[in-house]
Automatic annotation (TrEMBL):
Protein name: ABC transporter ATP-binding protein
InterPro entries: AAA+_ATPase, ABC_transporter-like_ATP-bd, ABC_Transporter_VariousFunc, P-loop_NTPase
Keyword Electron transport: no
Gene3D superfamilies given in the database record: P-loop containing nucleotide triphosphate hydrolases
Membrane-crossing segments per the record: none
Lineage: Archaea, Methanobacteriati, Methanobacteriota, Stenosarchaea group, Halobacteria
Keyword line: ATP-binding, Nucleotide-binding, Transport
Domain ABC transporter: 4-234
GO terms of molecular function: ATP binding; ATP hydrolysis activity
CDD domains reported for this sequence: ABC_DR_subfamily_A
Pfam families linked: ABC_tran (PF00005)
Highest taxon of source: Archaea
């Protein structure tokens, strides 16, 4: 069953065309890697799929909802882990996860169970009642991972999931993502790390200049003669460098 579908997606910021006719689909049960260099259009695509910005053209569907016209409903049903996201500085991890759980319509008991489970899994039990201003960037990333999965969504969008994590936790998170996708969920991972994409994804889409230039099945052994690295370099090497707007500039243009 298709969980995510993108057809002819276009989005510009001023004179910069960040996404230029993107097309792909992701089924339930897939861990889909969205692989490309900085400025390829990955973050803009995720922000469109999660109803944070409106496209200029094209159609997008997530769990058969339209993020453009139903952004609240879409965000209610998915999990989101942004690349530069961090918890509110004035809350503790426990308070933040309680807030997220309430927004996600979870019962207090369920929130407590999920909070305890994620704190144990990622090793931040001792930090549950510490203000986020006193946490390391790695600890904050652990809390952000927990909030993305606390309501057990059918689709999760993740931008650079392993940022700021130590190697042991990285391996734990990778194993979890693989098992979560296998449970009839769709996990969409945006990354520029070829090793991560090759290590955990069932299928990888390579993005350059705002377009999906090729796809490679990983789980079925469809590697061909060319490694993912060689394929990536071959398809991306000719792409022209572009001036890409910052997230702040994006927000300003969409206000």
């Amino acid at each position: 069953m298709v969980a995510i579908r993108v057809d002819g997606l276009r989005k510009s910021y001023g004179s910069v065309e960040a996404v230029a006719g993107m097309e792909f689909s992701v089924d339930r049960g897939e861990l889909y890697g969205f692989l490309g260099p900085n400025g390829a259009g990955k973050t803009t695509t995720i922000r469109t799929l999660t109803g944070q910005i409106r496209p200029d053209a094209g159609t997008v569907r997530v769990l058969e909802t339209d993020p453009t016209t139903e952004p609240i409903e879409t965000r209610r049903r998915v999990g989101i882990l942004p690349e530069q996201g961090s918890p509110p500085s004035f809350l503790t991890p426990r308070e933040y996860l309680e807030f997220v759980g309430e927004v996600r319509d979870l019962s207090p008991d369920r929130v407590a169970d999920q909070t305890a489970s994620w704190a144990e899994r990622l090793g931040f039990e001792s930090k549950l009642d510490t203000l986020h201003t006193d946490l390391s960037r790695g600890q904050q990333q652990k809390v952000m991972i927990a909030q993305a999965f606390i309501h057990e969504p059918d689709v999760v969008f993740i931008d650079e999931p392993l940022a700021n994590l130590d190697p042991l936790v990285q391996e734990q998170v990778k194993r979890f993502l693989v098992s979560y996708a296998a449970g009839d969920n769709a996990v969409f991972v945006s990354t520029h790390n070829i090793d991560v994409a090759e290590d955990i994804c069932t299928r990888v889409g390579i993005v350059a200049d705002g377009r999906l230039v090729t796809e490679r099945s990983i789980s079925d052994g469809d590697a061909g003669d060319e490694s993912l690295l060689e394929l990536f370099l071959d398809r991306v090497n000719g792409a022209n460098a572009r001036d890409v707007p910052t997230l702040e500039e994006m927000d300003g243009l969409d206000a």
